[in-house]
Amino acid sequence: MLDPPGDLAHSWQARLLRQIPMPAGAGGGPRGLHCSPDGLLFLTAGAAPCIYVLDLEGRSVCHLPCRVPGFGDFVPEDVAVTAAGLVVVSDLVHGAVHALQHTARAPQGCWVTVGTFLAPRGLAVDAFGRFLVTDYVSGAVHSFTLGPALEQLAPASMLGLEGPCWVGLGPNGGFAVSEEFGDVQLFGSARQPLGSLGGLNGHAFGSPAGVCTDAEGSVIVADEQRRQVTLFPRGESPICLVSKGLGRPLGVACVPQGQLVVADAGDSYIKVYQYHSELA
Question: What CA–CA distance (Å, rounded) separates 175 from 201?
Answer without folding.
Answer: 17
